[in-house]
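Worked problem 6 (solution included).
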Amino acid sequence: MNTPRLFRDVHQSVEPTAAFSVPASRSSAGSGSRAGSGSRAGSGSRAGSGSRSLAVSLSLVLAPSLLLALTGCTEPAAKQAAASPSASAPIISPAPSPSKTVEDGTDTLFTVSAKVRTVGGKTVSIALTGHQPITSTSPAAATLLSTFLDGCVAQNGRSVSDATVAVSATALETYGSSLMRLDLTSDPAGQRLFAPVTLELGSAYAPSIVSGSGITLVSSTETCTNRYQMATSGAGRGVVSYESGTAAPDPGKWAFGHYGFSVAADSGASIESCSITITDRARPTVATVAGWQPGTGDTGINCGIGYIGE
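Solution. The predicted structure is:
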């Protein structure tokens, strides 16, 4: 029985277009049987076959292109999402390297402190602090070296180890110099003292340079083994050069010096409240020095620490 044309057209319009070819035998057979029903029917059959072939061809052509298009759109986005951090993910910065710190006062050897009187009878606190000597050639000694040379060269100073040689950085290196820093403080400052206070700044055989407010140079030698006094309360800094006599420095030679304050016995002045502190850094050095006294003060006219002879 012949199928009405209307049904055939509807059936052809809803038939899915698969992404594969229709066998040639089926297409030919279908065309022949429909041709027997009339030329118009045969023509319609051929049109239906052509439509299906065109649909199949378009499917085969467009399907890969559509797949590539979809892949091309999504792949870069996926890569970008993988490469970029999530907006909600926290960004963790690397922890900063701990910075190195140096504690103040770690090179302190001792502190000598006392009280003296002004011309008006008021008390003034004074203190002298000694620090661990540093080899003159060390970069850490650059400021001390400059201070010492400026002061000693201004006096036409000579080397304490060889008076025929002018003092210089080279001479200090040749004879193994270690530079010791001494800090002088007083409170209140700017007060005229009842009598000048003599500053004891190490050994009589070690050159020293001191500068600061209220400090005066009392006597000097060609090797800068100077003596200083403080007539007005103030603050200052001293640098003492301890030479070993060879190219090898001896940082322990400071222990053969004496440090502190004194006033002349006939001045009518006195030194009160003498207090001496020595640190653990200094103890191993002074323990090996015969003649070292931990405190030679509180006699009323002096206050000090150091070597007094064997």
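Discussion: The two ends are 145 Å apart (CA to CA).
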